[in-house]
Write a structure and sequence with these properties.
The protein is of the alpha+beta class. The chain is built from eleven helices and 17 strands. Helix content is 33%, strand content 21%. The strands form four sheets. Strands 1-16-15-17-13-14 form a six-stranded mixed β-sheet.
Length: 415
């Protein structure tokens, strides 16, 4: 009987040992789950070979830093004013008119009285591949990269020794070098000249027929002098400061890409959700994911995964020396058990491809451990209970046979 009791106690000991082993591993190895637990995320990535990340708690100060450093056209390009001057370029068509103070000079003959005025207009000409234009009785005049006034002065200087008090008017007949290009998802892709009054980004898009798709699903790329910036089309409309002036040779490209977020863990629904607007807050994103799972979510640990530039990460207080590359992986943590957390969630703007992850609460993990315990006990008990049953049956049979033998009534078979 002592051995039987030992056999009965063994499964409990084994089950307790397995449960403690599972809990010792933080529930990650043996217990099922949709992702890391809140304490794992807060402790940081301990594996030096894995991707490191910075953990940042959302506060009003953090929101203020993020709002002032949103990726916008204005943060990439500092020249927000219209072009102060238009310079000639190779391929431009230029017109030149030369005036003289009196007849009998280089261009105005003695019989100038029969002429309409004391000037001549040269045939329109193209700025050649060397950047020059031709003026009679003068060396080639440099035009490319120079303003209208600068070219006029060069021509006067070249002619003043031969003409009578020459004056020159240079005009841009056709602008071909300093154009603005609008390409991509617009109704009429086009190239057009920039003028002194200035063209804003939305003006250029309007001249190209406007975007083909819904504005909140369109992105605008502005490329200038090898630099590039991307911004939602809707932001150009609602944030007028981002609708900056264009410069000669700017290129605008529109492309269609619905903005999405990803939600995992203990949210009401998991998956990919469209913004369906040009801007969405964290509170709205949680609403699209049907909120938090009331029976499982750890509301004190709502995590948002995102990449921030080195400059922004440094402003957020991250030691960027530990990371490589221009983008720093950041995990923001928000406590929605705190009533003020929902106000922060309303002010936190989501970005395209942000990831929301809500871990399970501690009680859910404890319940998993208890279920694991019961499963372990039941699994180990089944074969032992069967063996104990067989042992009991055999013991009963032996005892019954012994009674019959002692009584002597059926010790031998009848003759």
């Amino acid at each position: 009987m002592r051995s039987l009791e030992n056999m009965m106690g063994f499964p409990r000991i084994l089950a307790i040992g397995l449960t403690l082993f599972a809990l010792n591993l933080g529930g990650c190895a043996l217990l099922p789950g949709a992702g890391p637990e809140s304490w794992d995320v807060r402790n940081g990535q301990q594996d030096s070979e894995s991707l490191q990340y910075a953990l940042i708690r959302l506060t009003p100060d953090i929101l203020d830093i993020l709002s002032r450093n949103e990726p916008r056209l204005t943060s990439v390009f500092s020249d927000h004013s219209p072009p102060t001057e238009i310079r000639f370029g190779i391929g431009d068509i230029v017109g030149v008119t030369i005036f003289e103070a009196a007849s009998g000079g280089l261009f105005i003959p003695e019989e100038a009285g029969v002429r309409p005025g004391n000037f001549i207009t040269l045939p329109s000409q193209q700025v050649d591949s060397k950047g020059n234009i031709s003026i009679p009785y003068a060396q080639p005049i440099r035009a490319a990269g120079r303003t209208q006034v600068e070219v006029q002065k060069s021509i006067v200087d070249a002619l003043e020794a031969r003409a009578i008090e020459p004056q020159v008017v240079v005009s841009l007949i056709e602008q071909r070098a300093t154009l603005i290009s609008v390409l991509g998802d617009v109704n009429a892709p086009n190239r057009f000249p920039v003028n002194h009054a200035g063209e804003r980004v939305l003006d250029a898009i309007a001249q190209a027929g406007g975007p083909k798709f819904q504005g909140y699903e369109e992105w605008v790329v502005l490329e200038r002098n090898g630099r590039r910036a991307v911004e939602p089309f809707g932001e150009l409309i609602w944030e007028s400061s981002t609708n900056i002036y264009l410069q000669p040779e700017d290129t605008i490209y529109l492309f269609h890409q619905p903005q999405t977020i990803l939600a995992f863990g203990s949210t009401g629904n998991q998956g990919i959700f469209n913004f369906e607007s040009w801007r969405m807050s964290l509170a709205e994103a949680l609403g699209k994911a049907s909120g938090l799972n009331d029976g499982a979510a750890d509301a004190s640990s709502v995590f948002l995964y995102r990449g921030e530039t080195v400059e922004v990460a440094r402003l957020l207080g991250v030691d960027v020396s530990k990371y490589q590359g221009p983008i720093i992986p950041v995990v923001y943590v928000l406590d929605l058990r705190n009533p003020a957390g929902w106000l922060l969630a309303r002010k936190f703007d989501m970005r395209n491809k942000d990831v929301i992850y809500v871990p399970n609460s501690v009680t859910v993990e404890a319940s998993k451990a208890m279920n694991f315990f019961r499963l372990a006990v039941g699994t180990v008990n089944d074969p032992i209970q069967a063996a104990v049953g067989v042992y009991a049956l055999k013991a009963a049979a032996v005892k019954s046979a012994s009674v019959l033998l002692v009584g002597g009534t059926t010790a031998t078979a009848a003759p």
